[in-house]
Give the backbone structure.
Amino acid sequence: MESAHRTIDVVSSILCEAVKNVLSTSTKKNIDYSSTIQKIQKVMMQPDIGCFLQFSGDYNGLLVVNFSGDAAVSIYRNYMLTMGMPEEDLAKDFTSNEVIDSIGEIINQIMGEFMRMIADKYQLIAVCGQPKVLALNNAITLTIDSDHRDNRRMAFNIEQERFQLELALEQTEFISIKEIKAV
C-alpha cells in the first residue's frame, strides 16, 4: 500500500466505490460522492433513518449510514421500480417498514461488495451481521468496546438528496508483503 495514505482512508475510498457500484446498479440512478473524506471524532446515527452494522475478521470496524427521509424514500422507490414493482404499490413515508427493510437489504448488498473488493485487493476477509435500520427522531452516538479511534465520514448524493456513511475502523495498517524488500 502507498505509505502516503492511511489504511482507513484507502478503505473509505473503497467503501465509496462499493456504495456507488451497488446503488447505481440497484436504482439505475447517478450516485455521486464528495471528493473529500472527513476525519470525525465519533460515529453517530442521525435522523431520519440511521443504519449500523459491525464487521469483523481480518479487519474490524463499525459502519453507520445516515439518510434524510427523502433520500431513503428516493433510494427505496428507485430500487423497487428497478425490480419492476408498480409505482402505485410503493410506500411514500420513510418510516414505513417497506422503506426500512429495503434500506437494510441495500446496505447488506453494499457491505457484500465492499468486503469482496477488500478481499480482492488485500486477501483479507471480514464478515458482518444483518444491518440494523431505525427511524430516528434524535441522534444516537455509537461506541463499541474496542480501539476504534479512526473515524471517517463520506457524503453522497442521489437525485439531489444527501446521505452520509460514517466508518470506525480499528487501528490497523494494511502493508503489502510485496512492498517489503528482504535485506
User: Anything to note?
Assistant: The longest strand covers residues 49-57. The mean pLDDT is 92.
